[in-house]
Amino acid sequence: MTLAPGLHARILIMVETSDTAAKVGSGDVPVLATPRLLALAEQATVQAVAGALGPGQTSVGTRVTLEHLAASPVGTHVEIAAELTEVDGRRLAFAFTARDRRDTVVATGTIERAIVDRERFLARAAR
């Protein structure tokens, strides 16, 4: 697989109590938490390029923009779709959208990741 724009992944979840703002501490309401939504979007970006990175490579998040537009209560099915839109050297740019089963846009945003050598990255992080 070649690392090129168009690679994509989708994640489908049903919002559980453990996904809510009240549970993760980002608010006090029982709806999908913004930090949880971001984690799922990042998970989709990782999955999108997983088969295209070289041996020993991984990617790390470097920049995020996110608009959380609609609440998703417990029991709501949400699909998060991410697509690689740009490759610039080691920099990867993604667009993502989250929608519920009624096709309501729950969130949109962009995520940038950098390709790194896993061992060197971890060695530097341990200093």
Strand order of the largest sheet: 1-3-4-5-2
Globular, elongated, flat, extended or rod-shaped: what is the shape?
globular
Question: Over the alpha carbons, how many angstroms does the gyration radius reach?
Answer: 16 Å
Helicity level, as a percent range?
Answer: 10-25%
Structure annotation, total helices: 3
Give the oligomeric state. Answer: single chain
**Low-confidence region ranges:** none
Distance between the termini: 34 Å
Topology of helices and strands:
Layout: E1 8-14, H1 21-24, H2 34-49, E2 57-68, E3 77-88, E4 91-100, E5 105-117, H3 118-126
Antiparallel strand pairs: 1-3, 2-5, 3-4, 4-5
Question: Any overview of this molecule?
Answer:
The protein is of the alpha+beta class and 127 residues long. It contains three helices and five strands, in the order βααββββα. The protein has a five-stranded antiparallel beta sheet with strand order 1-3-4-5-2. The termini are far apart.
Provide a compact summary of the structure.
With 127 residues, this protein is an alpha+beta fold. Helices cover 23% and strands 43% of the residues.
